[in-house]
């Protein structure tokens, strides 16, 4: 029976396949193999669904859905192996120095196309010749229990699955000792667990089909066992998907933090690049449009914004009175975040001075330098500046500007 959990796993695998497709770069074996793995798993899961199974079984080839499902599963199995060896394997030149499972995995990965072709041809021949398909099956293994042809066919399919699962489990267990982050270790544990369960799944399936050939089994027991085994099958897919995705959550969290920083920084960047358009690559647009641009990665966009803000602030020095920073610091002396507040007030007042046409032949003193290690840290500082900047009214900024002009004028 195809339960809600099976549909959920199928939908999750389909979503992951679509998501990974957008991340594939030319020549990127690692991501391409992972996408092929997800796509093959998703297709195999959907081919098990009653609606697609019944539709395919109305064709002239009885149980066509089963054959196509095993094709998709075979392709995903070898894609998993390619994915693992592209990440963990040392390469052909160093294979001789590695333990035999690594050497064998690398050899199998290099011959994957031939292995896939041989298995598909053999499965097809057995399926069309020795498997009894006189009537469509609703559950292939229980419906063919006791038939040596179906047992042989399932053996050919499961040998590749079992060997690959064992190899992947070994390689991921080896990588677990070298994992340097908690998320990576957790992901590898989930993937190792899924491969161990996959080996158990293969042993149960092969043990049952050949036991049924040797000794007739109760049909009710066969159906009950198939329900549990297929539930285990879905759980394997779920654990594998979770294990692969878990290490990527760190990157997703970083992307989310970068996106939020861009969102919060937009008003300050917009005002500065509108006043001084020469520093910007393009005229600023609406906030939502700017933070959802696909033309460049988020971190690159954030780095560009911080640089454009810095360039604009540097040009504002030609419009800010020499005493503006001192007056701004005195004005916000009691503020909870005084230094960013002084910088925000300086920027707002300097923009007012620029709007009034004020200009100095000699640039005023630059804003104080800060112990900032990278562009993201600078962006976080600017977010603090923007937080105060948003609360300053034009009248307050002009009052500070006038006070700075008066403070600079000689008394006598």
TrEMBL record:
Q: Which residues are in coiled coils?
A: none
- For whether the record's keyword set contains Transmembrane helix, the answer is yes
According to the entry, every stretch annotated as the DUF6545 domain falls at 257-390
Which keywords does this Swiss-Prot/TrEMBL entry list? Membrane, Transmembrane, Transmembrane helix
Annotated transmembrane regions: 33-52, 64-84, 115-131, 151-176, 188-213, 236-257
Q: Does the keyword Membrane apply?
A: yes
What is the name of the protein in this document? DUF6545 domain-containing protein
- Please name the InterPro entries in this protein's record: DUF6545, MAB_1171c-like
């Amino acid at each position: 029976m195809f339960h809600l959990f099976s549909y959920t796993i199928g939908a999750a695998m389909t979503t992951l396949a679509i998501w990974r497709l957008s991340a594939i770069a030319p020549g990127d074996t690692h991501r391409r193999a992972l996408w092929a793995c997800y796509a093959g798993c998703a297709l195999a899961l959907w081919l098990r669904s009653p609606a697609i199974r019944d539709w395919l079984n109305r064709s002239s080839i009885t149980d066509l859905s089963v054959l196509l499902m095993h094709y998709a599963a075979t392709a995903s199995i070898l894609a998993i192996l390619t994915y693992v060896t592209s990440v963990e394997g040392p390469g052909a030149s160093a294979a001789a120095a590695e333990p035999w499972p690594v050497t064998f995995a690398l050899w199998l990965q290099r011959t994957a196309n031939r292995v896939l072709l041989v298995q598909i041809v053999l499965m097809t021949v057995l399926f069309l010749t020795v498997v009894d398909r006189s009537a469509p099956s609703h559950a292939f293994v229980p419906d063919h229990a006791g038939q040596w042809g179906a047992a042989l066919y399932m053996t050919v399919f499961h040998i590749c699955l079992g060997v690959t699962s064992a190899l992947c489990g070994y390689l991921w267990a080896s990588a677990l000792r070298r994992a340097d982050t908690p998320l990576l270790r957790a992901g590898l544990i989930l993937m190792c667990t899924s491969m161990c369960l996959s080996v158990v799944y293969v042993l149960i399936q092969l043990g049952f089909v050949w036991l049924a050939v040797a000794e007739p089994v109760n049909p009710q027991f066969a159906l009950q066992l198939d329900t549990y085994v297929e539930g285990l099958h879905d759980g394997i897919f779920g654990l594998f998907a979770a294990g692969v995705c878990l290490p990527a959550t760190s990157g997703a969290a970083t992307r989310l933090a970068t996106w939020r920083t861009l969102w919060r920084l937009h008003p300050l960047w917009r005002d500065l690049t509108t006043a001084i358009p020469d520093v910007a690559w393009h005229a600023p647009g609406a906030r939502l449009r700017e933070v959802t641009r696909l033309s460049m990665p988020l971190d690159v966009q954030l780095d560009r914004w911080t640089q454009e803000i810095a360039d604009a602030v540097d040009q504002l020095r030609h419009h800010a009175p020499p005493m503006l920073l001192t007056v701004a610091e005195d004005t916000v002396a009691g503020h909870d975040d005084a230094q960013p507040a002084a910088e925000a007030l300086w920027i707002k007042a300097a923009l007012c001075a620029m709007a009034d046409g004020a200009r100095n032949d000699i640039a005023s003193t630059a804003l104080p330098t800060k112990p900032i290690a990278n562009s993201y840290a600078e962006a976080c500082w600017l977010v603090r500046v923007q937080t105060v900047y948003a609360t300053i009214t034009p009248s307050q900024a002009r009052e500070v500007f006038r006070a700075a002009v008066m403070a600079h004028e000689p008394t006598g």
